[in-house]
Design goal:
Blueprint: H1 3-23, H2 29-38, H3 52-59, E1 97-101, E2 104-108, H4 111-115, H5 127-142, H6 144-177, E3 189-195, H7 202-216, E4 220-224, E5 227-230, H8 231-237, H9 247-250, H10 262-267, H11 275-281, H12 291-307, E6 310-317, H13 325-335, E7 345-350, H14 353-358, H15 365-381, H16 387-393, E8 396-402, H17 431-452, E9 458-459, E10 462-463, H18 470-478, E11 482-484, H19 492-500, E12 505-507, H20 509-515, H21 524-530, E13 534-536, H22 541-544, H23 550-562, H24 566-579, H25 584-591, H26 605-608, H27 612-642
Parallel strand pairs: 3-6, 6-7, 7-8, 8-9, 10-11, 11-12, 12-13
Antiparallel strand pairs: 1-2, 4-5
Helix pairs in contact: 1-5, 1-6, 1-27, 3-27, 5-18, 6-19, 6-27, 13-16, 15-17, 17-18
Bound molecules: zinc ion.
Zinc ion (ZN) binds next to strand 3.
EC number: 3.5.4.6
GO cellular component, one term: cytosol
GO molecular function: AMP deaminase activity; metal ion binding
Length: 643
Amino acid sequence: TSNESRERLGQLELSTSRHFIQMSAVYSTHFQFLFCILTLHQREALHDFAHFKTILLYLSPWVHLTLLSSSADIWPYPHEGEDPYSMEGIPEDLNYELQIKDGIIHVYENAEALKQEQAYRLPYPDLETFAIDLSHVLAMIADGPTKSYCHRRLNFLGSKFYLHEMLNEMAELKELKCVPHRDFYNVRKVDTHIHAAACMNQKHLLRFIQTTYQTEADRVVLEKGNKKLTLKEVFDNLHMDPYDLTVDSLDVHAGRQTFHRFDKFNSKYNPVGASELREIYLKTDNYIKGEYFACLIKEVAAELEESKYQLAEPRLSIYGRSASEWESLATWFIQHKVHSPNMRWMIQVPRIYDIFKSKKLIPSFAKILENVFRPLFEATINPQKHKAVHVFLKYVTGFDSVDDESKHSDHMFSYKSPKPEEWTTDDNPPYTYYLFYMYANIMVLNNLRKQRGLNTFLFRPHCGEAGSITHLVSAFLTADNISHGLNLKKSPVLQYLYYLAQVPIAMSPLSNNSLFLEYSKNPLREFLHKGLCVSLSTDDPMQFHYTKEALMEEYAIAAQLWKLSTCDLCEIARNSVLQSGLSHEEKKHFIGANYLQDGPKGNDIRRTNVAQIRMAYRYETLCNELSFLMDAVKTEFGQSSAQ
Ligand SMILES: [Zn+2]
């Protein structure tokens, strides 16, 4: 590395340390990682993080890190034979009060505390510090010497893997041949990014529509205005006979017409272009109380259970239009018994304030936040009164933020941005604004739930599929992992940071191929080889896939096109388990009891089918990059720090 780059690192440390120190306790592990690398101060690690031990090794001369031992699951999932919907043993009411202030829910111990505005201390990042830190990282990724440095390191990582492959390919293969029982087919794979409303393929949906028509044509399924319509009447109004339907006329598959047209893609959720059919078949809250949608999901779940080794993390929507959404979603989940051991649920919140505002459904942005988060606080404080939500939340592992990222926003996010209560214009807030307020509320909620001994939630937004590079910076500060990450291609500094911090990325090259980026140009292979923590996911099997096993289709196409080795594929599968919301117990079972340890020690080859040579290579390479950085820091600050 050049002296110039070393100097840059030094300057970064000086210019950013104030905020890093101040806020480190409330940021995500990735941000803390950055903090670890760039600052040399005593601090305490709050999370157990896969690579902390590695960092510890390099920081130990200067930094005192306390590593918390990996705790058992706060809330293990029900074992076989237990009732997953049991309402026994629900915790008592805490009698706390709630109030939303500057877009963030505050908790008060009693009415008196509320009156005196003395909120219960549940840490979260404040807007001003977040905005300043954001601008620091933005300055960093635009800095010339830093860009050159990262670009060169990334090139080096790519070439180094190429060399590793040439030297060790056969040795890796030999190792895998010796593993008894385990092969690519029976390693656990998690579909880390999939939307529930599109989790079945087009043929499946078609067959389901035809079956319901054959068996229940006279059932009332829709209320339009004051008129109740039977399934037969719905199809009569659409002038079609379900018997004649084909996947072509169903028209839910994305194709050439959707490229760079997210609007057209969104309309593909309407079978035959009819929103009535979406309402009947793909919604949880409709005249038939989401029965058909639940059936479809359960059929998908049954296939996963049969395949045994595949799991999925489908997203269900909470829009923030009304405060009753959680109650009805939870009731749907319990009533139709949607839980499956092979599925963990994520909640997606679409960024569509502008639509609700134009329909005059909400007065300000704060109302959306309140509708999304307040019911969760209420169910945490008084689960007895919100039993359904309380039970449903056991199976929810995180939040997602979704919508078309290529939509431009005129507003520049800063600490001067209007507070959510004051955000009353018709314009949609920018991506970063959504991310910050979701993250801050999740943070407060998690801290409250941790104190109650309840499960907490990850933040896993869609990010870097299209649009501004700023999105990836906001996610780096807040997210546990992201979906897509394509735009990391455009920023060497961010890509290198995502590598160093091992921020997991759920990639969906088939989805990208229909929407934003041709398959052959997809950076997945490049990212994987450099050592970024990537997994494969389907996004929307209904729109993109052809076969019954959409996730396998995804792996198969990637393997064919990029000539991925078995070890590559199993490494991706292992990454998918690591980054999923599965419980600690399950992860231990699926990828090995020591999976939290770094390097080959953390790998159980009999479960993952990933060669130890590969694990050692990844570990040594990451250590090498870290020691490179640390040497640079040492040169500049080692002596002064020692003094
Ligand atoms: Zn998606």
